[in-house]
Amino acid sequence: MLQQAYDFRDESEALYQLMEPLADAEFDQAMQFKGWTLNDVLGHLHMWNWAADLSMQDEAAFMEFIGRVMADVKSGTLRSFEVNWREGLKGQELLNTWREFYQSMAERFVDADPKLRLKWAGPDMSVLSSITARLMETWAHGQAVYDILGVERVNADRIKNVAVLGVNTFGWTYKNRGWDVPDVRPLVKLTAPSGDTWEWGDATSDNTIEGRAEEFCQVVTQTRNIADTGLIVTGEIATQWMSVAQCFAGPPEDPPAPGARHRAVS
């Protein structure tokens, strides 16, 4: 059983429960993330969930789909492709379509071989990495929804999947920017939502990151600037990493400016 598939389902379900009471018009409100609307977030999550599932079910069909995505992006934008792909779905109809799919998708992934290699828009990845990436995307984009609705997020220990991804992409963050990867990996010591302690790295390291797991996950997914967290960062390497940490694929992106991402106050 692939627990990450259930974690993905549960994180998606938490986001669904947040949006389920909303009226259709509320899905058009712009958020702090690049001016996306709630419809944009749902459409993005739904299309790439669908693509990840297709990659596991039918590699040839997935490659044809990615070919269309790449061709369209050359003459337009990924956002316009996603809008066209969902064929007018929005609001509650889009919300329920997304939910129906992620529920069935989780069941297909839970019994899959976690080491099976899958094609993707970037490098191939394992089934385990694929569903973990979908969980991370759901959690990260979900933060913008919690923020604009002014709701304080209550996390569960399943965010450990995001924290592990953040730790594991230490080297990727540097390579993606064309920088040399430091020989020293910082110690990461986090307090989980449950109160447990999660720790990675050398306990004797002079480079350390300590604090709440939620805030570490926010930094590596670039939903918060490090300055807007209570994380305690010590050492030049740890400080540099946290200033540009990026656990998601794609070209280098900079974190939001201090204060740019926050929970709205009604």
How are the elements arranged and paired?
Layout: H1 3-19, H2 38-57, H3 59-75, H4 78-85, H5 91-110, E1 117-118, E2 125-126, H6 127-149, H7 160-168, H8 170-176, E3 187-191, E4 197-200, E5 208-212, H9 213-220, E6 232-234, H10 236-244
Parallel strand pairs: 3-5
Antiparallel strand pairs: 1-2, 3-4, 5-6
Helix pairs in contact: 1-5, 1-6, 2-3, 2-4, 2-5, 2-6, 7-9
Question: What are the secondary-structure elements, in order, as H or E?
Answer: HHHHHEEHHHEEEHEH
Largest sheet: 4 strands, mixed
Number of strands: 6
Q: Biggest sheet: strands side by side, in what order?
A: 4-3-5-6
CATH topology type of the largest domain: Four Helix Bundle (Hemerythrin (Met), subunit A)
Poorly predicted runs of 5 or more residues: none
The overall pLDDT average reads 96
At the fourth level of CATH, the homologous superfamily of the largest domain is dinb family like domain
The CATH class assignment of the largest domain is Mainly Alpha
- How far apart the termini lie comes to 42 Å
> Over all CA atoms, what is the radius of gyration?
18 Å
**Number of separate structural domains:** 2
